[in-house]
């Protein structure tokens, strides 16, 4: 009997099979679960779209898997984040704001040049950079909410795919030899630890959710960091502190990586299952144009970020890959960066740029809605 749990694990199974197919030096890896999720979401559109229990369950999968993934990567990166910020701090600020500004600038250009609904394009901007806070800012600032949401929905998948494929293909296109890049030394003592404290792990999550729901007043807008932002702050902060009294926040890295991978494949599959029927249902000539625009905006932002980080700031690819995905606020992209670089430096780069990128998306969405076209 068809149920959401069956669809989820079928998506994971076939997605992992798809991800292991290697063409020269390229393979999808865990990102294959996104495509299998899209396929099953398209194959069973009636169940996914009309059955309320299916949507509720997929939303639970989405939130729970996101919590596991983000908390684990934050705790893994927490030991290096101080050194990374000390060495690259301002570079990450500039990089993240440049990426989001590039997308904003191209969106304004498309609005001025093309005879398209500007509210659709405002939604496409947030979709291309996979930014829910950006979408929320736009929705609270305009009356044409359904038109903005439509643009976001259509633009989201091209935005995700652009980041994933770029992270895998950039090293091949620009002849970057990942194995020769610098890596931070591993903590051998930590590697020998075999503990996993569920009490501490749960506390990190609880604090992260509380932080993510605190409203931040920026003067022109009030935002929340959301689950991703809150969990990143709590896991990076508590993990770098190490312990509070008898509560220990040091975890075995291998165990965290297993939880991270489980969270990632569930996260990607649930995105595909939630979005597959929407992509097909909304597909027509006009939505195809919006999807192409989203893809162009995403690729433009990514490559501006890449050239700035690689040739101006001279960042190693491991950390730059994570910084680009953070600048694009793309959690699926981070999964691709981790898998392609095999380095936890990608997590540190993501954690350092993500908060600034969130701020950039809020500011630039606000400016978009204030402009009169």
Automatic annotation (TrEMBL):
The chain crosses the membrane at residues 6-21, 28-48, 60-78, 90-114, 149-174, 195-216, 222-241, 286-307, 319-338, 344-364. Residues 8-171, 202-368 form the YidE/YbjL duplication domain. It is found in: Cell membrane. Pfam families: Asp-Al_Ex. Its main location: membrane. Keywords: Cell membrane, Membrane, Transmembrane, Transmembrane helix, Transport. It is a multi-pass membrane protein. Belongs to the AAE transporter (TC 2.A.81) family. NCBIfam families: YidE_YbjL_dupl (TIGR01625). This is Membrane protein.
């Amino acid at each position: 009997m068809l149920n959401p749990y069956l669809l989820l694990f079928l998506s994971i199974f076939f997605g992992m099979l798809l991800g292991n197919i290697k063409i020269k030096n390229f393979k999808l890896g865990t990102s294959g679960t996104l495509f299998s999720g899209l396929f099953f979401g398209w194959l069973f559109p009636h169940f996914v779209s009309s059955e309320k229990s299916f949507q509720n369950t997929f939303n639970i999968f989405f939130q729970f898997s996101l919590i596991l993934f983000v908390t684990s990567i934050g705790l893994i990166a927490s030991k290096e984040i101080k050194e990374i910020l000390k060495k690259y701090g301002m570079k990450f600020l500039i990089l993240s704001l440049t990426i989001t500004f590039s997308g904003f600038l191209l969106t304004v250009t498309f609005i001025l040049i093309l005879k398209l609904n500007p509210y659709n394009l405002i939604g496409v901007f947030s979709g291309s950079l996979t930014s829910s806070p950006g979408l929320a800012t736009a929705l609270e600032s305009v009356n044409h909410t359904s038109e903005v949401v439509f643009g976001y929905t259509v633009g989201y998948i091209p935005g995700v795919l652009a980041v994933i494929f770029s992270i895998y293909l950039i090293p091949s296109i620009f002849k970057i030899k990942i194995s020769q890049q610098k890596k931070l030394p591993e903590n051998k003592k930590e590697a020998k630890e075999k503990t996993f404290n569920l009490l501490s792990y749960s506390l990190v999550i609880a604090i992260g959710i509380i932080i993510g729901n605190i409203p931040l007043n920026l003067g022109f807008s009030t935002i929340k960091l959301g689950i991703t932002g809150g969990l990143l702050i709590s896991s990076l902060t508590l993990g770098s502190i190490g312990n509070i009294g008898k509560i220990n926040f040091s975890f075995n890295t291998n165990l965290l990586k297993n939880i991270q991978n489980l969270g990632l494949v569930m996260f990607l599959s649930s995105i595909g299952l939630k979005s597959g029927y929407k992509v097909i249902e909304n597909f027509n000539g006009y939505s195809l144009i919006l999807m192409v625009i989203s893809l162009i905006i995403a690729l433009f932002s990514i490559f501006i970020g890449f050239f700035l980080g690689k040739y101006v700031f001279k960042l190693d690819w491991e950390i730059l890959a994570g910084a680009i995905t953070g600048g694009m606020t793309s959690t699926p992209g981070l999964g691709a960066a981790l898998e392609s670089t095999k380095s936890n430096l990608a997590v540190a780069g993501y954690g350092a740029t993500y908060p600034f990128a969130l701020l950039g998306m809020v500011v630039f969405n606000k400016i978009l809605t204030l402009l009169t076209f």
